[in-house]
Design the sequence.
């Protein structure tokens, strides 16, 4: 296997030859913590352009579709799930098309005696990407490593993703009749997509007076694309980086060409790693899609789901009336605050769909006061039931997390560390949420002790 720095330097040379840009004071290094990385050789000023990728070098769904159809002698209408599959008749997703396109590069590398298809234009780019043995997402974990995720939501997500991608891989082989499009190759290309994709709205020049195309295309559906050269930079949270879509001067073209660039808004001293920016992501998303975690991660969450199957009609109707969804994924953040929508759904479920505020308004003052007292007592009891049930759910999740296996056998040290950081973040959030619930229970018990000693009209 060639040196990763050399592979990436070949990509940069190719990028520049195609009209792209890579800052002359940026250099590649293999960092012990972040792997292949870009560092500054000299101080860089504000508004420096780290890298530019011409629009026509992007790996897009449209480019992939055209290449696939030309090579396989198919029409776009043929790129559908075949009869007998789970999604029979559905069009291929953007991921399937781009993965097929990238995979066909490997297929033709295995056919040295056949002419290289002119539509396969990203051989240098694909060669620069980390080989499968260097990929660290959970779909590359062995069974012993997967056991580290026991008790977490992530384990189920890994299993679901493997099932989904495996089915997609089988469809590619069937429709394109290429046995070289193996599961291993599909897994690698799909992982590249999950960890490196950018939104296609970047491939739009801004309207007059706008800095970036992002602001002008929020109303359009964005598709995943790959941007050779731009994805060399590691991502970090809150970096002073602008994604700039603009006409860019190129040394090999007489006129500026449409390009997407990474531009820093702040100075960078020499010998500093240069990062791209990304939005807030919890560790389960980072680990599943990118293969790493942050320690600590202020954007971490715990996802909660309720068992919503076979709800009584009255409960279903009341949830619909209130605009609530029992099947929703509820996020508990670092502060441990329970989402209001989760509490409201649980109130409806535990009350059997009865409106907790429904009671007859009696004309008699005493009867009305008595009804109000009974209603308040009922609501207090319901709230205690909700908090008790929720506390039981969280306690069960905590127990599963704390009892999961420590990992035995062939387990990589970096995998052990990543899983431990992820799980500890989940445990910390659950403990904080449990504290919040306990505090709330104590407040309600105090109110019940103070004001629920007996009905005032009956005393």
Sequence:
């Amino acid at each position: 296997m060639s040196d990763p720095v050399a592979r990436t330097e070949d990509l940069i040379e190719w990028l520049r030859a195609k009209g792209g840009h890579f800052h002359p004071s940026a250099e590649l290094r293999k960092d012990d913590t972040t792997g292949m990385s870009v560092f500054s050789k000299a101080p860089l000023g504000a508004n420096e352009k780290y890298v530019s990728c011409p629009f026509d070098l992007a790996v897009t769904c449209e480019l992939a579709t055209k290449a696939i159809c030309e090579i396989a002698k198919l029409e776009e209408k043929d790129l559908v799930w075949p009869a007998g599959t789970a999604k029979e008749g559905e069009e291929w997703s953007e991921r399937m098309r781009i993965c097929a396109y990238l995979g066909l590069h490997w297929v033709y590398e295995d056919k040295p005696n056949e002419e290289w298809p002119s539509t396969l234009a990203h051989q240098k780019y694909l060669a620069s990407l980390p080989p499968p043995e260097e990929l660290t997402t959970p779909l590359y974990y062995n069974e012993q490593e997967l056991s580290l995720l026991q008790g977490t939501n992530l384990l189920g997500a890994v299993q679901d993703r493997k099932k989904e991608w495996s089915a997609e891989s089988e469809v590619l082989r069937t429709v394109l009749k290429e046995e070289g499009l193996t599961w291993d190759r599909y897994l690698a290309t799909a992982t590249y997509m999950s960890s490196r994709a950018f939104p296609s709205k970047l491939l739009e020049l801004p309207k007059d007076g706008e800095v970036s195309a992002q602001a002008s295309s929020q109303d359009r559906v964005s598709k995943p694309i790959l941007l050779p050269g731009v994805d060399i930079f590691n991502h970090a949270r809150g970096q002073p980086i602008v994604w700039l879509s603009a006409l860019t001067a190129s040394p090999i073209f007489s006129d500026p060409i449409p390009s997407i660039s990474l531009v820093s808004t702040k100075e960078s001293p020499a010998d500093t790693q240069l990062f791209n920016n990304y939005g807030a992501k919890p560790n389960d998303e980072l680990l599943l899609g990118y293969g790493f975690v942050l320690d600590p991660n202020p954007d971490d969450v715990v996802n909660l789901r309720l068992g919503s199957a076979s709800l009584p009609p009255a409960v279903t109707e009341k949830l619909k009336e209130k605009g609530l969804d029992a099947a929703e994924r509820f996020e508990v953040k670092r502060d441990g605050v329970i989402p209001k929508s989760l509490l409201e759904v649980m109130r409806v479920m535990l009350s059997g769909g009865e409106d907790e505020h429904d009671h007859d308004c009696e004309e008699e003052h005493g009867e009305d006061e008595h009804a109000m007292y009974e209603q308040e007592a009922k609501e207090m009891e319901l709230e205690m039931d909700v908090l008790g049930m929720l506390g039981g759910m969280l306690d069960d999740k905590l127990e599963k997390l704390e009892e999961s296996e420590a990992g035995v056998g062939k387990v990589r040290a970096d995998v052990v560390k990543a899983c431990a950081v992820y799980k500890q973040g989940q445990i910390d959030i659950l403990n904080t949420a449990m504290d919040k619930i306990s505090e709330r229970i104590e407040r309600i018990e105090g109110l019940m002790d103070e004001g629920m000693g007996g009905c005032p009209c009956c005393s």
Observations:
- Residues 176 and 276 are 36 Å apart (CA to CA).
